[in-house]
Design a protein that fits this description.
Layout (H helix, E strand, L loop, with lengths): L23 E2 L2 E2 L1 E2 L1 H8 L11 H18 L7 H14 L4 H23 L21 H8 L3 H17 L3 H7 L18 H22 L4 H21 L2 H11 L2 H4 L2 H4 L5 H9 L3 H19 L13 H14 L9 E2 H18 L9 H9 L5 H11 L5 H15 L3
Antiparallel strand pairs: 1-2, 3-4
Length: 416
Amino acid sequence: MVTPGSLGPPATEPTDGKQAGQPLLDGAPSSASLDTLIQQLVPTTDYYPEARVRKFGPKLLQLLAEWTETFPRDFQEESTIGHLKDVMGRIAPCDEAYRKRMQQLLQALHQRLAAQGQGPEGLLGADKPVSYRTKPPASIHRELLGVCSDPYTLAQQLTHVELERLRHIGPEEFVQAFVNKDPLASTKPCFSDKTNNLEAYVKWFNRLCYLVATEICMPAKKKQRAQVVEFFIDVARECFNIGNFNSLMAIISGMNMSPVSRLKKTWAKVKTAKFFILEHQMDPTGNFCNYRTALRGAAHRSLTAHSSREKIVIPFFSLLIKDIYFLNEGCANRLPNGHVNFEKFLELSKQVGEFITWKQVECPFEQDPSITHYLHTAPIFSEDGLYLASYESESPENQTEKERWKSLRSSILGKT
């Protein structure tokens, strides 16, 4: 990504003679041909009058250090590592300090790549929903409250999980998600193993939705189900206060799933005022206007934070991906004159850069392994399993529901 003022020398007349000058954006070129951009970035004797290795070495080392730290996945391929080692081989013999710095750089790169390959608990594990067959001897409701009965504590542990999973998403995954063979000539999304952490995080959101719905549908008595609903409402409120909007949205989405929302007798026993307030905050109306206002408030709080808890900003991730996708789709990579559209990439850089800042925040809450393990491993029902559990808890109300209930009992339970 290019940032204002990062292109070094001021705009001059390009050597290809195609344009007398380049438009400026905050003091830096706002567009240029790819060849001219390369000319701006590559040092020459005119650009760096003392461009000898001993003079230019520290600058190149800094560039390589920042590159490998920010985009370690760029160096996953052996061929890329080979190019890196080749550059290092040309510089290292000039100074013993360079050689030691190169070794440290390579070691740190290998550690980052190894860490990204491991991932947190369950990051790439199977989150496959299970079918509803029989109710367990002890309901999941009692098991959940046995593990964690305090909404604030569960909200903290959800935040722990979110930040741990976010930490493994590299900025290059956003780039890889929306590029094809030529990143400057195509906007066709291209998902691959280079975006597995990003996709795994989206799967975590879906898992949390289904976990919430499963917990609510499982208890046999409506009083117990109502208690679980109110518990999750309180957890969602605490997530909002913390700045954990992703878990907040997952909980609301789980509670709005049809197998849960149809439990009218259960909801009749719930104090829904707090839930409606949370729904209003995450209302999709006006392109999530209310949420975006709350997000800006959390972002401002993070910038002026006096404690680590105030620094937490965990955005609703699916909407962030959508925003980046439509920015990429809606703005041309190249201008009509063939120049690279710096303004577009500056905006992309701003959005991804903000996300990088948020994901690097250290979680201030002490981890409770028993709770986080439960969040990662507790069984969750498939959609059919949720509907069957819902119908078993509160009988079908119309013919359509009765027919579906009969079909699910036959296919899942083997009953008629």
